[in-house]
Each structure stands twice: as C-alpha cells, then as structure tokens.
Description:
By secondary structure, the chain is mostly helical. The chain has helices at 17-39, 48-66, 68-74, 77-97, 134-159.
Amino acid sequence: MVKADAVQGESSMRMSKIVRTIADVMFPFAMVFGIYVILHGHLTPGGGFQGGAATASALAMLLVAYGSIDILHRISEHKLTILECAGALIFAGTAAIGLFRTFFYNFLANTGSLFGTYPGYGPNGGDLNTGGVLPIMNIGVGLCVIAGLFAILVIMAYATTVKEPEEKGNGDETKGGH
C-alpha cells in the first residue's frame, strides 16, 4: 500500500516525544467521550454523527502526533471500509426490520429487552435501556461517521507525504530559451 520510495522520511513526519505522549494519554479519554455521545444520543444532545465526529477527532489526534505513515501501517483502508459498511448495515437493517409494520418502526419499545425498557412518565433519569431502536441507529451512524471522516483525514495526510515526480526537461532550459 505505501511504498518507501514514494514518501518522505517517516521520522520527519512524526511530532516530538512530548506530543506523542500527550496524544497517547488523551486518546482513551477522547474515545470514551465520543462513544458516550453516541450511546447517549437518545437522552442528551448528541448522537451518532456528533459522537462519530468526536471519535474521528481522537483518531485525528493520533494522525497528527504519529504521522500518516505510522497510522496507515496500523489502520488500513480495508478496515475503514469494513467499519463503514458495518455501520450502514446496522442502520439500514434496523430500519428494514420495522418494515413489517412501518419503516423505522420502533420494534424494541416496551419489550423489556435490550433498549426496550418502558421509561414511564416524566423525565428519564439517564436509563440507557429506554431508547428502543434509536441507540442501535446511533451506533450505525457513529460507525459510518468515524470511518468516513477518518478516511478523509488519512487520505489528506497521506497526500501531503507523497513526493511529486520530478519533471525531466527536454534540455531547452540550458540553452537560454524562454
């Protein structure tokens, strides 16, 4: 995927040890925050897109700290494609299951199963198990957004590391031609 002669020195693309250490320390917290926003999207402002963007930002922090070459060795385009397709299948599959009644039917509501607890009247005290199909759809959207945004960032970062081929002149430059 990445050719050694096509990119500049890998060590020149990395940040200092301090930046990498801070990125390593902050990464788990940023990931947990993004996942929290995805899972609590039916209770608080947020959801799949916002949490996916926060999680992709955590991955972008590693991309900046370690450089695109290191990250491309760890996370391949194939893995991002699988993650994005899984998110789309989760979302579309959840929507399609409700087709027996109506599209996007909340078939989990009040079933007592996962995400199907009856919330009762009044404000929800933060019970995650009351969202019906919304948390599942938020997870699907979150996976799509994480993979899509991070793929865009990786492509942009990789494009800055590729050396442009040197143009070979036809010799007119040395003869003084303008």
